[in-house]
Design brief:
Blueprint lengths: L1 H28 L1 H5 L5 H7 L7 E3 L2 E11 L2 E6 L3 H8 L2 E2 L3 E2 L1 H5 L1 H5 L6 H8 L9 E4 L3 H11 L4 E6 L6 E7 L12 H13 L21 H10 L7 E3 L3 E3 L6 E3 L11 E3 H7 L2 H11 L1 H11 L22 H7 L10 H12 L10 E5 L5 E4 L17 H16 L15 E8 L8 E8 L3 E7 L6 H16 L2
Parallel strand pairs: 1-6
Antiparallel strand pairs: 1-2, 2-3, 4-5, 6-13, 7-8, 7-17, 9-12, 10-11, 13-14, 15-16, 16-17
Helix pairs in contact: 8-17, 10-12, 10-13, 10-16, 11-16, 12-14
Length: about 475
């Protein structure tokens, strides 16, 4: 009998110990996490008592809080130009929580950052009415609107970057959506708006500028040319002028578009091959360089790394180990090479910036309610591993810049539709194949002087990069140049 009592006592003791331990873990270790979890109803109600700071582009708020008298929710989040900025702002919802910059910069917008000590003290002392901070973006409203207008309802994306700072001047993707009904205080309205967006086969909730990966096609030849120039090649170096390149270790050839030769004569130069976008020369170059050198150069541009953007961004990819046939296909931007539109804009910006890859960023400043700057833009190099912070030498960058200008204005250039009289425009077109028989992805990446670098991608295009994407880039250039 005594033995049974001892056993029961031991079990009860263990259970009390487990309960004591669990309560202490919740109280001491998980209290903040549970209290601030976005699904916590108390957190949502408390946040809706704060006048959330605006997200500002130019001098206009693209997301702002309006005072309401709707029960426990004191402020309503609204978006005056919803579809134009939806993938940047995201939504702020009592049901869906937050997305986009509303989620990424929640602490700044609610005024909870450590820079605002006085405001945080005010909250602790019971001030529920203190406002959040304003977030000013690097976006240029004219360039953003030009990207939308130039796409003209087509599926695709445009990213424009200031090459001297890494600031994003435009990031627009279509299809887009309206975040206003998702940010309503009416749960029925939210659910009715969410279901068709979630189930839409066109995926309007996907940001094709930063979150979608595409084969870059011939636009990737900028990266290959950089690797060749860094390895000691010169724009005047000659190659066999052939319609098809006999790829080693396979019976499949790589051919030029339209089975065309790369100009006249038995030989052609790297400069001509770049201008005319000749697959045979770049496939040969890729095999010559090898998989390690090709991947290393791509990684120096940012491939295989997640961009340090304030919004979530997909990682552009290139395999570090490939067999010879795969390397030949990768060198023309096909096979397993995948890139975001943001990444390809960064490639152009790095060329313009003399070979230095800068950190892409959307936030220009965070200001307190009194207008004081609490923090500025995150400007600086995005270090290429290992290395000295340069993606390529200044000499290589200048040679690439000249090649890209020639690819827009030279004889037989594929990017002529991006040209603007009196302005130095450089670029590279791309027409990337996807599934057999499916329409291609039309690309253009390039720059206008030192002012702006741009990337355009149009999937399911009814033409190549020169016909479809280059004119879009031209309109964006014109807006950026004023």
């Amino acid at each position: 009998m005594n033995r049974q009592i001892v056993r029961v006592g031991a079990v009860v003791f263990v259970l009390f110990g487990a309960l004591f331990l669990n309560l202490n873990v919740i109280t001491l270790l998980q209290a903040d996490e549970l209290a601030n979890h976005p699904a916590n109803r108390r957190v949502i109600i408390r946040e809706y008592s704060i006048e959330r700071g605006p997200i500002v582009v130019g001098e206009e708020a693209i997301a702002r809080s309006e005072r309401t008298e709707e029960g426990q929710y004191r402020y309503l989040r609204t978006y005056p130009q919803p579809e134009l900025y939806a993938h940047l702002t995201g939504y702020y919802s009592i049901v869906l929580q937050r997305s986009g910059l509303e989620r990424a910069l929640n602490e700044e917008l609610t005024g909870r950052t450590t820079e605002v000590v006085a405001q945080n003290l005010g909250e602790l002392l019971g001030r529920a009415d203190r406002p959040g901070n304003a977030v000013e973006l690097t976006i240029d409203p004219a360039v953003q609107a030009a990207a939308r207008d130039a796409l003209d309802g087509r599926e695709g994306a445009v990213v424009a970057i200031d090459p001297s700072t890494g600031g994003v001047l435009a990031s627009y993707a279509n299809p887009t959506f309206d975040p206003n009904p998702l940010s309503s205080h009416d749960t029925r309205e939210i659910n009715e708006a969410w279901a068709p967006l979630r189930d839409d086969p066109d995926r309007p909730l996907v940001d094709r500028a930063t979150g979608e990966l595409y084969p870059p096609g011939s636009a990737f030849k900028v990266v290959v040319a950089a690797a060749a120039l860094e390895a000691g090649s010169d724009p005047s170096r000659t190659f066999p002028n052939e319609v098809a390149y006999d790829v080693p270790q396979t019976s499949l050839d790589i051919r030029n578009a339209g089975d065309a030769r790369c100009g006249d004569g038995e030989e052609t130069t790297l400069e001509t091959a770049f201008r005319r976008s000749c697959n045979t020369v770049f496939a040969r170059l890729g095999v010559e360089l090898g998989d390690e050198a090709l991947a290393a150069q791509a990684e120096a541009f940012g491939f295989n790394r997640t961009p340090p953007l304030e919004l979530p961004a997909a990682t552009s990819r290139i395999p570090e180990e490939q067999d010879v046939p795969a390397v030949a296909q990768s060198a023309i931007g096909q096979r397993d090479v995948q890139a975001t539109v943001l990444q390809m804009a960064m490639v152009s910006a790095t060329v313009v910036n003399g070979g230095q890859l800068l950190r892409p960023h959307l936030v220009d400043a965070v200001r307190g309610p009194d207008g004081a700057i609490l923090r500025g833009a995150d400007v600086g190099r995005w270090q290429a591993p290992p290395g000295d912070g340069r993606t390529m030498s200044p000499r290589t960058a200048q040679q690439l810049r000249s090649l890209m200008v020639d690819a827009v204005s030279g004889p037989g250039a594929t990017g002529g539709a991006a040209a603007i009289d009196g302005v130095e425009i450089g670029g590279k077109t791309g027409t990337a194949q996807t599934l057999p028989g499916a329409p291609p992805v039309a690309w253009f990446i390039g720059f206008a002087g030192d002012e702006v670098a741009v990337a355009v991608a149009v999937p399911n295009a009814d033409g190549g990069g020169g016909a479809v994407a280059a004119p879009i880039a031209r309109q964006v250039f014109q807006a950026a140049l004023g």
